[in-house]
Amino acid sequence: MTPARLLADSGAEPMLPGAARRGAARLRMRTTPRRTGTFDGAWWPRSRDLDSRLPELLTVLTAHVGPLARVGLDAGAWDERPGRLVVEGRSVRLDWSAVGDDTMIVTRGDQDHFLFPVVPPQTPPALARAAMAGAVRDDNDVSAARILAATGVTAADRTGAPPGAPAAPPQESRPLHLPRR
C-alpha cells in the first residue's frame, strides 16, 4: 500500500509556493488508484479568506489530478463566495452549499469527483493533523463532521464561534472510533 502523500505539510516536499512559510495552506491527499475511503484527502486552510487560500490549493490539485471543472464548498465556512476562479489559465466554477457539512468537492472533467473534509483554520496543529490522517484512511466511511469531532475539533472550531458561545447541536450521537494503524 502506498502511504498517503502529505502535500505542503512536509519540509522534504513543499508543493505549494512558499509552503514552508508559516500560515501556508495544508493538503493531505491519498494518491493511490484504489480510492476506497470516503475521502480522497483533507484540506487545512489557514484562514477563511478564500481569495488567498483556494488559488494555490487548486494549482497544486491541477498539477496532480489534471484540469479542474468545479469546486463545491460550504458557504458558511468562507468570508466571500465568488462564482469562478481562474487556475492555470482555466476557469473553475465555484458552487456553494448551505449544508454545513465541512467538505469540499472537486470535479475533474464531467464526473470524476474528489472529496475533501475542510479542517477549520483555527484548529490546533495536532488536532488538524489527526483529522487529516483520519480522512485519508482506506477504511474511513464516516462524515467530515464525525472525523473532526473524533479528533477533538469542536463545533466552535468549525463555526469560528468565539469561546463561550453556545455550541452547535451534535449531528450524530454515536461515538466514532478511527482504527489505529
Major sheet: order of its strands? 5-6-4-7-8
Global structural class: alpha+beta
The percent range for helix content is 10-25%
> H/E order of the elements?
EEEHEEEEEHHH
Distance between the termini: 12 Å
Return residue spans where pLDDT drops below 50 for at least 5 consecutive residues. 1-23, 161-181
Question: Characteristics of this structure?
Answer:
22% helix, 181 residues, globular, three-stranded antiparallel beta sheet, alpha+beta, 8 strands, five-stranded mixed beta sheet
Structural account:
The strands form 2 sheets. A 5-stranded mixed sheet has the order 5-6-4-7-8. A 3-stranded antiparallel sheet has the order 1-2-3, covered by helices on one side. The model is unreliable at 1-23 and 161-181 (pLDDT under 50). The longest helix has 16 residues, at 50-65. With 181 residues, it is of the alpha+beta class. The protein has 4 helices and 8 strands. The chain is globular.
